Amino acid sequence: MMEDALPRVVVRNTERSARDSRRSRYFSVYSHVDIGGQHGDDATKRRETTTTDKQNNILLQRSSEGGKGINSVKASRLTLRNRLTRRKTLLSRSRSLVDLSVAAACVGVVAMLVETELYVQKVVSKSEVASLTLRISVTLSTVLLLLSVVVYNITTVQLAVVNNSLDDWRLVISPPLVCSVILELVVCSVHPPPLSLQPKLESALSVLMFLRLYLLVRFLVVHSRYLTDTATSSLGALSKVPIDAQFVFKALMSEWPGSMLLISMVAIFSLSGWSVRTCEAYVALAEHRALNETPARDIPEAFWFSAITFLTVGYGDVVPSFMIRDGDVVRSECGRVVAVVVGLLGVGVTALLVAVLANKLQLSRAEKYVHTFSTRIELDNRHKNAAADVIKNAIKLWRMRDLANQTSRGRRVHVQGKLMQAIRLMKDARQTKANIGEAVVGVVEVHSLVTDIACKVEDLKKQLAAINGELHNLVAIAEDRFK
Questions:
Q1: 410 alpha-carbon distance from chain centroid
Q2: What is the pTM assigned to this prediction?
Q3: Positions of E strands within 207-348
């Protein structure tokens, strides 16, 4: 509207100035008689023409400035649109890269499990083609995993640049970020190589491959509804709450605590049991002994050891070591490390289990109100009964004092004891009722109380304003009468 209106005004002023100039030239050429004031009128018209030209220039300048403002708004909108489109593209790319990395990690872990089981059960040896093929597949999947992790971190940096409206990606790079990327690459690169190594070292590398399963947590984060939902992600960005693994874990624990704990316990039992059994098997193969000579000779024994270690019981009947017939003991360092890790995880999961049970056993607000109401009724009845006993025993004691010669001292002491007990029960019931009333007061009650006080204060302000208005009217009326 501004751009259309301003040129029209400019055209009208230009036409008007042209007509005035033609009119002034006409009078100067065809007039032979000097009419009084004609030269003054020409000067006035020339001044009007100059003023009109100045107005036209000002209007043209304003129209150009308005066009620049509108163009800047359009450019800002286009920049915001590009940013949102770029962010959506980067999120989709990061999600695809996480899927690829999880698939590569799972393929490597499965190939390692198959190769290890075939070797432990002595189905194949390390020099056969099947074992070599499986180990090469583990290496290839590891290379693909490393590439996907590198590209994912690059995409994360680009996403941070877009989210923070930065001009250079180097502003996002920080020492903690570099250390986390290096640690992630080291964790993902650990795997048993295709070449044959010492059995103890190969067992340790095989067990450490389970560390790459942390990518499952990242998979849950990028595919969670908290990150895919636009409203939730926008609210988190406005509130400066990062939607990361910690946030998703807390949300899942608040929604499905039992399922999360059960999945965690089953995963820890499975991985730790297999790891202990693999460490013991490689030690047995290194010492050229049979697998049944080890304490954790099979999967059930390994799971029993994992269970008693996880629950921090530790009976000691199964230990991560290999016994040799001549009395020497060969220790399994891999099994000991697994036992320590399982014990620490057991302590953490047990603490979470206690917290979840404590939260589940708490009464809800409605249940707490019902329980408090019934308890107050019971305490009121107890207080009334105790008060009745006080009155009854006081009357008895007063009558016994009047009939001191007819009642024994033991009888009076007995009635006096019952009176003191009734007084004590009455005081206890009153104190318990007061404590229950204080315990029921929560955030909701305090909020309602503060709201009621605020409403009453507003009403008082309105009443005071009305009273002040009436007083001013009375003062004005009194002044008018006295005048």
A1: 72
A2: 0.63
A3: 321-323, 329-331
